[in-house]
Amino acid sequence: MRRWRQLVIDTWGALAYKPAFQEAAGGGPVRLPGAVGASWVPEGERRRLAAYTLLAAYDTNQAAALLGADGDDRREYGDACLVVDQTLSHLLGETQQVVVDGAESDEAAREREKLLRDWARSEHLWMRMQHAERNAVLLGDTVYLLAWSRSKGRPVLKPIDPGFYFPVLPDGALDADEYPQRVHLTWEVPDDAAAGRRGTLRRVTYELGSIGESGAAVRTYPWSSRPSALTCYLTDAEWDLDRIGQGDDIDALSLSHARFRTNADGEILQRLDLGMDFIPLVHLPNTVNGADHYGQSSLLSVAQLLDDLAAADTDSQRASATTGSPIIGLSGAGLPVDRRTGRPLPVQVEPGMVWPLGDGGQLSTVDTSPQLAELRAYVEVLRERLSVVTRLPGSVLGTVSPSEVPSGYALQLSYGPLDAMVRSMRLAREAKYPLLLKMVQRLYQLGGVLPPGDNPRATISFGAYLPTDLSAALDLVARGVQARVLSLETGVRLLVDAGFPIEDAALEVERIRADTASSAVAEQDTESEAEDGEAA
């Protein structure tokens, strides 16, 4: 009954078997890096921060360090990092591109698409996405933060470590996608004795609230014709760590002990009105996780398997040492003796060494090669199980060569679980990247770059992630467009998804139509010349 009461089923329950996780999440004597057990961390968030730390340890081949002295000689060969990198690669696909609805046929939408693509290049969006999405795959979440830069004249984007993200979720919220009205970005700054700096806690707060002190004021924002009574307030404050009490929660820290920072314009960041009715922050979970606000790491389901694989690799390494340098027993041999003590000196096995044996002498060795072969076979079994549980086929993890697959159809079938996983992960992002680009457009409107009015829907299209028969895809599109069961725009989109190097689908459609029109004119001219020749 006691164990039943201690059972906690949540997103991070798969790590409950780790003593370090249990002690850190419960506020025990173990203190994991990153202020997991700090007094200001809400009790409900300690499990999440402890899970982040353990997952990061797996990624950097340091999970054995959490075993104490028992993990000093544990081997870790990067299996966790391989799973994360391969999952990330297939999630993002070969290419990523900003797409605006209607850009193939509408000039205004095409101009908006060009603006957003220029912004993506200027902000190095694809590089930042690699960093942010890797956090999502590894830890289960990632966070994007937007702000308007007056010096650059555009919105700036910054990925945020999810360990800094502390949303104040509504009580009793049943919808995991329900947007919080208040969000804290919080982290500790360690003390620096050389610089004479004390340890501090930094908290950046975005909060939606009523406009003005009376709460009766309204404002019309450029993206909507309807007046709004909401605005977003920014507070950036820091506290000395030694002034934070044991019971001080992150959401209830006393502002009387805080020091407020200022922005580039010298404004004090204490409930600064940002002039927008949304929080410029997008939280992106790795998976569709039901009613839970947070996503699930791609490593959670295989944490124990990674431990077993590391243990098997360690045992295999130990067995290979005894196989390469076997244990030898000698009897009846004249061994060298220390003249001072009269004791036999240690004997080293070297190539070409000869031991003279007397009558009845014997040499025997301990052969551990069968055990080594069994251990290597066990490692391969674990790797096959890792492939099954992570839904990454052996050809993706490098355990199976594509040349060993009996046919292309069999190889395609092996990608079935991977295809289902990637589709589910992209579904979790289906609403998040349009939200991010909507915020970018609204910030451009606040900066006076875009005119007031509704903004078209924009999203990020991920490219193909599976091997594609390009000739078959091209033939399918050509026949579909020719039979008028596919529009030219849809056909070009299919070619982009198949992996053809088409950077701008709308521009490609224009080129095809222009070439078609030129060919038609040239054909008409040829027919006219032929008719004139016959008449002559």
How would you describe the overall organization of this protein?
The chain is α+β, with helices and mostly antiparallel strands and 536 residues long. It is 39% helix and 16% strand. The strands form four sheets. Strands 4, 5, 6, 7, 8 and 9 form a six-stranded antiparallel β-sheet that branches. It has a three-stranded antiparallel β-sheet with strand order 3-2-10. Strand 2 (141-149) and strand 3 (154-160) form a beta hairpin. Helix 7 (303-324) runs antiparallel to helix 8 (369-390). Residues 29-34 have low confidence and may be disordered.
Question: How does the overall form come out from the CA principal axes?
Answer: flat
Poorly predicted segments: 29-34
Quick one: how many beta strands? 13
Task: Please report the distance between the alpha carbons of the first and last residues.
Answer: 106 Å
Task: Round the mean pLDDT to the nearest integer and report it.
Answer: 83
Biggest sheet descriptor: 6 strands, antiparallel
Strand content: 15-25%
Count of alpha/pi helices: 15
Question: Which features characterize this protein?
Answer:
536 residues, alpha+beta, three-stranded antiparallel beta sheet, 39% helix, 16% strand
Summary?
The protein is of the alpha+beta class and 536 residues long. It contains 15 helices and 13 strands. About 1% of the residues have low confidence.
